[in-house]
Design brief:
It contains nine helices and ten strands. By secondary structure, the protein is of the alpha/beta class. It has one domain (2-252): 3-Layer(aba) Sandwich (Rossmann fold). The strands form two sheets. Strands 6-7-8-3-9-10 form a six-stranded mixed sheet, sandwiched between helices. β9 (218-223) and β10 (226-232) form a beta hairpin. α3 (99-107) packs parallel to α5 (151-163). The longest helix is centred in the C-terminal third of the chain and has 18 residues, at 181-198. The chain starts with a strand and ends in a 12-residue tail after the last helix.
């Protein structure tokens, strides 16, 4: 479903601030893979997601989604088959619009737009059923302005919008980092359930090593723009945070250091 071939990305080339963010990334995700991505500051995690999303053009290499070479496509042309949830809960929704209006926009993603703007009774019923699964009471507030919701509620709504029309690929960029621990766990539980029930292919960047181990069927660790560890299946399920730290030190020859990482 996703293939990256020798992907490079350098910021500020030829200047004193030159930074090699991605250095020859090769990565393949099969349909239904849920991959978590962990790494220290500046490891290249968010750059990887932004490259896949088309937010930043890459220097060289290829990005292929479901057999289609999207390397030269800008982000708005990839949006038809990529769902994305950002770190900032305020980014993924329109604050001045109602909950049901936000969902209606998501339901029309990739479809031909007309001057007619009406939410049908069938759509409203479907939205209510999907909101109820979030267990946040939003199904009883569908006419409320999204800007009145808490950060956790908006992030859960963004997750629902990103997956309302099944995307080829779901990108989650530290989507629970700005939430309190209790709300973060609720959003993660909803994430796991939606990905599992809809059979989605997902790539989730997280700063929480425990979450990276607990969620998904595969874990990759990045360091200095490279993938240094790729663990899946039974090997992943048996991992501990201590195992991850040891593997990082063994492969990279240095201690894991990140002021954002939550180790346990």
């Amino acid at each position: 479903m996703l293939r990256l071939e020798n992907v490079h990305k350098t910021f500020d080339p030829g200047t004193i601030n030159e930074k090699h963010a991605l250095t020859g990334i090769d990565l393949s995700l099969s349909e239904g893979d849920f991959v978590t991505v962990i790494g220290g500051n500046g490891a290249g995690k968010s750059t990887l997601l932004n490259a896949v999303a088309g937010l930043w053009p890459i220097d060289c290499g290829r990005i292929i989604i479901d057999g289609q070479d999207v390397t030269g496509l800008p982000d708005f042309k990839r949006a038809a088959f990529i769902g994305r949830v950002f770190q900032d809960p305020m980014t993924g929704t329109a604050a001045s619009m109602q909950i049901e209006e936000n969902l209606a926009l998501a339901a029309r993603r990739g479809k031909r737009r007309t001057l007619k703007w009406r939410i049908t009774a069938k759509e409203r019923k479907s939205f209510r059923e999907k909101l109820k699964l979030l267990e946040l009471g939003l199904e009883d507030r569908m006419s409320a302005k999204t800007g009145l919701l808490s950060g956790g509620q908006r992030q859960a709504l963004t997750l629902l919008m990103a997956t309302l029309i099944k995307p080829k690929l779901l990108l989650l960029d530290e989507h629970t980092a700005a939430l309190d621990p209790k709300t973060a766990q609720k959003v993660l539980a909803a994430t796991e359930r939606i990905i599992s029930e809809d059979g989605l292919t997902a790539l989730m960047v997280t700063h929480n090593m425990r979450d990276a181990i607990l969620h998904g069927n595969r874990l990759i660790m990045m360091n200095e723009g490279n993938i240094i560890l790729d663990i899946r299946g039974e090997q992943k399920r048996g991992l501990t945070v201590e195992d991850l730290l040891h593997k990082f030190e063994e492969i990279s020859g240095e201690q894991f250091a990140s002021d954002k990482a939550i180790l346990g």
